[in-house]
Structure prediction request, 803 residues.
Amino acid sequence: MYVTFPMNYKFGTVEVRPDERQILVEGQPATVGARAFDLLVTLIGHRDRVVSKGELLDLVWPGLVVEENNLQVQVSTLRKILGNQSIATLPGRGYRFTLPIDNDETGPSCPLPGFAHNLPAQLSTFVGREREISELKEALGNARLVTLTGMGGNGKSRLSIKVAEQVIPEYTDGVWLAELSPVTENVRVPQVVAFVLGVKEEPERALIETLVAFVKSRRMLLILDNCEHLIEGCAELARRLLLAAPQLKIMASSREPLHVSGESRFPVPGLDIKTEAVSLFVDRALAVQPAFQRSPSNIETVAAICERLDGIPLAIELAAARVNAMPVERMSVLLNDAFRLLNKGDRAAPSRQQTLRASIDWSYDLLSIPERILLRRLAIFAGGWSLGAAESIASGGDVAQLDVFDLLTQLVEKSLVEIDARGERYRLLETVRQYAYEMLQASGELNPVRGAHARYYVEFAEQVRRDIGGLTQAKALARLDAEIENLLAAHASCSHVPDGVSLGRRLSRALRHYWIRGGHLPLGIRVALDALARMNHADRTKERWSALFDVGQLSCWAGQFAQGRRYMQEAVAIAREIGDPGPIGGALQMLALACSGEGENGTARSYLEEAVALAEKVNDPIELAAALNGLAQCHRIQGELELAETLYQRAMTLAAQAGNNETIAITLLNLAMLWIDRRSAERARSMLLEVLAVSRSTGSRAALQSVLEVSAGLAMLTEDPERAARFYGAAEAMATDTGIRRDPADASFLLPRVDDARRRLGVEAFEACEKQGRALPAEVALQEARAWLEEATRCLPTDQPCT
Prediction:
């Protein structure tokens, strides 16, 4: 049997009449067998999900045993009548009816749950473009790279998202949108795509190589939106990914082609004036003015307006948004004035570009003075903004801070500013942003607004920094993630504003922990290097020491020990010239880490001994505890466990007296490794549990990552190589996420034990266990480790004396 509803179904030129058991194509009956008809109605009835092959066989051939190829034959028959895209095949899962039903009141109107995608929900209806949708889907079926081309504002992005919504079931690994409009550098294109796909940067590996490895065997659709200002970066990324991933397809939108081999170009025209353009105008007019009525007396005027605007959707929407302020007859007159003024502009520019500029010029001229000022100041934002940011940065003069919210609301209503579905963040359409930025330049306010923007985001980063290591770490990281483009724009602005050197230093320092915990160490190193480059190289100040320290520390955390050593050596030299023991000791600790990373353990130990002495001299318990930890690590590498234990215990006492939980956690981890070296499983177990408890307050992902690594070592002590491999895999996945590379002492503890597990299990079994661990979300892996550690003491071997 099949599911029936008391209605007929219409999609395009096709009508399905279940009660009459008829399929009409352009009003004429189509010849189709009974089984094919039953199959079609069944798929339509279950159009909200994928229907398995077994379920279809039971529903369409009830009580009969038939071969699966009968199902394939009927599907093929239906596709010949309805088109290849009408029924999606999901390998290993089944089939799904994908055509939008014109009169559907029961089916879904947006992408269905259960399919992977990040397509945004649309807040307004999609009008027209039926022909372009069909042709674009066909083009996407025949080519692996399809680029929608045309001028800004002609609806390329909206069209690509609409098509993407309809083809979601065809891509088992998802449909993913990478919005590139806020990005200003070609080198950032892979980073944006990696962020969208959840791919993290890896130390000493180009991000493009990591992306290539990620997509290699995946069946997915990637949408690169707004590529025109990043042609080289988008073209190179598309070429590399398509060459590596045979099942990947890319849909790009740009004002010009990417010029990649195999590219299919899809020019997006303006809307048809008499039908689509007028319908769009009326739809948007009703949204702002429910009393607006389409009548024979005004529809010709509306058509004339749409024709003057060349059927460009953005221009039409901007015009329609004004019907609540004037009748369309008056609008037509003003629009004529705008065109006349345009003729005095750049005659060499394309006519469509002039037309869009005219529509934005006209919309801008209708704004009040405060609205104009606010709009052009908003152009300083990259990737959107919050209300608080707008109130702080864009207020002043004729724009009172208390009026910013009302003015923003008015700009949203006039379709010049967009607001997200939650009402929390605003953004400018890219074409409007470019126009507003030109107005900002012409106003003479660019540098003051740019400075205000930079200062705001420096202070924002400094405020969030206080939460990075605490209980609100996840929230703090999310806040920085949302503002990453603005933070990078502020960083770039520091090269242009009077106090840019100081602001750049503060921003780099404030974001240092974010680069680590957010898994963006390579980007953090670049920001820190830029901040350092703005400074006078001849300066021998504490500020320059701080800049050198940041670059060196980030480099060491990323495992770039040679670079870290170079910058830390200069930092130590400046600190010695200044004569401040604190900076000397801090730099010596990181210099020691760099030397240890390069295999110079003896040199590292001498630096750490000096750092201990300096910390004792200035009576700084936290720096002293850190230096003692580092020195103990050197001794543990050499097998001098008793001396290492003494130093660890002293560091623990100092950290406990100071109430510094982060140092307590680090010291406990080091002691746990030492007790595993001494084959004391129970002591190591209790310390790891204590680290987990302490880390609830610090939120340190580095400490939690180390818990998994030390747990792997403990598992080997308890003769459990499978669990060791699993914990090791989970730790490696977390390291990829954070970008943190373990220090030499931790590596000397873990890697021999990992090699031992691999020998005991055999390479194939070890890799299987490791792969399982890598697949675990970090929180799940830590829960598993905690549960294992909390098992009864009887599960662990009796402590054995150190030999």
In short: The chain has six domains: 9-97, 130-267, 273-365, 369-444, 556-649, 660-803. Confidence is low (pLDDT under 50) at residues 1-6, 105-114, 337-354, 798-803. DSSP finds 36 helices and 14 strands in the chain.
